[in-house]
Design a protein that fits this description.
The chain is an alpha+beta fold. The protein is built from 13 helices and 16 strands. It has helices spanning 2-9, 238-270, 300-305, 308-332, 343-379, 390-412, 419-449, 458-473, 476-486, 493-516, 518-521, 528-555, 570-575; strands at 16-22, 25-33, 40-45, 49-54, 59-64, 85-91, 98-103, 107-112, 117-121, 136-141, 150-156, 159-164, 169-174, 189-195, 204-210, 214-219.
Length: 579
């Protein structure tokens, strides 16, 4: 009611003057708006509503919109009906740390400080990017862009654009007159973000909209020495030359420090992994008003409980920061007086990226165990007979064995992030194989106790058989099918085959590494010949993979050495070790 509206608008300060034309409305004289009790850094205007972005990143809206849901206030919790009117500014839920908002014809786009894009409003042209044409009454994250860190958003009527930190442009929505810039110029609309392939390999640094109908993509030019002293002057003497170099170095150091502060403040929000005792993990930051970190000193428990998707997102953002730091380092390393200005930042960002990847890789292995443990509690221990019945014991063991086998398969396909995660993965595989062999041995002993046929060597042979079958899964054809299912994209067939060979060899090497830990992975009951044959099979598969890549490159007329495609000395490969 009026009292609630008055209380919400109480303490409001002058926000902005408004005059001129927009949509079908005209204001001839500047009109002062006093609605929001905190500073606004941007507003967008609808026909009968206003959306404002506060200095601290919150988004508010007020006015009336009964058609499209641009107010972004969702639905009334009591009636379930969409909220179509707000007489006083209302916070839009689900949006925090927003850096920019853009208004289309009847839809709104928001970008936050971690590169996520949210849209709401009218969606009949696919302009919201949610793989449908439905309206949204409250902000919804554009999931198709989750794998990218977006740094700019732009809108042309019912068409939406997003620019990533890697210089890639995505577009979706209305494609009338090929506004989206697609290869398929006849496509009327696009319902989720697609990469603009027509821009080629050029990296875009900024998008610009001209007269709400023309899109300009500024590309990254070759690195040049730019600075405030780039003017044509007469050739200086040696003394003047030295002074110019000094001033250039000072200016570049200033720019580098500004970038470092920006990167550091962002780094505090996405840090994971060691060291865990940094005071900056709390509320401290390099600049006043900068975003705080984890809200307190970071701990190992934080990394164990954080959502895996947040770890992956932090890894992507850290990679983008590292690439930016390396690019800046390359640009300035030849300038006088700037040798050390970016290298320390690049090193620290690289270290932070390694820690995030390590935490992410370890969490994948931990989560694989947790999922298996949840399943085990449901299936394996549902047998409640505590008697000495051998059949019941076997049923229990088989139930747990199935869970362990599933867990082993999940662990095998996890890609390690670094050597630490690789060793952790191999150790977990060895542990699971030992556990499986122990269970099979118990089953054979129970059979023997019941005077039934049994063979104590079978459990160890089953492990060898499982490893042999795993090698079949590492074939190029199976990996090719996986790439097709995951819709991985490659520049050409050569890159595709090179990727398949690399992934196949990595998985084969993983099995060979386990074979080297003989005190754990070998069983004394199994003849050494079985392990020799398994190892030689793996080496032959690696050679076959490399020869296929070699033949392709020769077919394309490329002169290459065998070592460049992984071909060493085949005889050594087959006779190495203890074969």
């Amino acid at each position: 009611g009026p009292a609630r509206i008055a209380s919400m608008s109480g303490g409001a300060q002058p926000n902005f003057y408004l005059w001129g034309c927009w949509k079908s409305r005209i204001i001839k004289e500047p009109f002062l708006t006093k609605k929001v009790p905190s500073p606004l850094k941007k507003i967008v205007l609808g026909e009968t509503f206003i959306i404002g972005l506060k200095e601290k990143g919150q988004v508010v809206s007020w006015g009336k919109d009964a058609k499209n849901g641009c107010l972004g206030l969702g639905k009334d919790k009591r009636t379930g009906e969409p909220i179509v009117q707000a007489d006083a500014p209302q916070d839009i839920e689900g949006l925090t740390n927003v850096t920019d908002i853009q208004m289309g014809q009847d839809h709104v786009v928001a970008l936050n400080d971690v590169g996520e894009v949210f849209t709401w409003g009218r969606g009949d042209k696919g302009q919201l990017g949610h793989n449908d044409c439905e309206n949204r009454w409250k902000p919804q994250k554009v999931e198709k862009l989750s794998g990218e860190q977006i740094m700019q958003i732009a809108v042309v009527r019912n068409s939406t654009f997003a620019l990533s930190t890697s210089g890639v442009v995505y577009a979706w929505g209305d494609n009338k007159d090929n506004t989206l810039g697609l290869e398929d110029t006849n496509k009327a609309k696009v319902e989720d973000p697609v990469r603009l392939a027509l821009l080629g390999e050029m990296r875009v640094r900024k998008l610009e909209i001209f007269e709400n109908r023309t899109i300009i993509a500024h590309v990254r030019a070759p690195e040049t020495d730019e600075g405030f002293l780039d003017v044509e002057v007469a050739p200086p003497d040696d003394k003047d030359e030295t002074e110019v170099e000094i001033f250039k170095g000072i200016d570049e150091m200033r720019k580098a420090m500004e970038k470092t502060q920006e990167w550091w403040n962002h780094l505090l929000n996405i840090k994971h992994g060691q060291p865990y005792d940094m005071s900056q993990d709390g509320s401290m930051s390099m600049t006043e008003g900068a975003p705080t970190g984890l809200g307190g000193p970071a701990t190992i428990q934080d990394d164990l409980n954080v959502e895996p998707e947040k770890l992956k997102r932090a890894e992507r953002h850290l990679n983008a920061l590292v690439n930016a730091a390396i690019g800046e380092l390359k640009r300035t390393q030849q300038m006088p007086g700037t040798r050390n200005e970016d290298s320390s930042c690049a090193c620290s960002l690289t270290s932070a990226g390694c820690e995030a990847r390590r935490s992410s890789g370890a969490r994948q292995l931990v989560d694989a165990k947790r999922r298996a443990e949840e399943a085990e509690r449901i299936s394996a221990y549902s047998v409640m007979d505590f008697g000495a019945n051998a059949q019941e014991e076997i049923r229990k063991i088989i139930a747990v064995t199935k869970v362990l086998q599933k867990m082993l398969e999940e662990v095998k396909v996890i890609e390690p992030m670094d050597v630490y995660c690789q060793e952790l993965k191999l150790t977990l595989i060895e542990c699971l194989e030992s556990k499986l062999q122990l269970h099979d041995t118990r089953v054979e002993l129970l059979k023997a106790a019941e005077a039934k046929p049994s063979d104590p060597m079978l459990p160890a042979l089953r492990i060898v058989k499982d490893r042999w079958n795993s090698l079949k899964h590492f074939s190029l054809y199976n990996l090719y099918l996986e790439c097709e299912n995951e819709k991985k994209e490659f520049g050409n067939d050569e890159q595709h085959l090179a990727y398949l060979v690399q992934k196949s060899n990595e998985m084969i090497d993983q099995m060979l590494q386990i074979d080297k830990d003989r005190i754990i992975s070998h069983d004394t009951l199994v003849p050494a010949l079985c392990y020799d044959l398994l190892r030689e099979n793996a080496e032959l598969r690696k050679m076959t993979n490399s020869y296929q890549l070699h033949v392709l490159m020769l077919h394309q007329g490329k002169r290459i050495s065998g070592a460049s495609v992984g071909l060493g000395r085949p005889a050594d490969a087959l006779t190495g070790g203890d074969s």
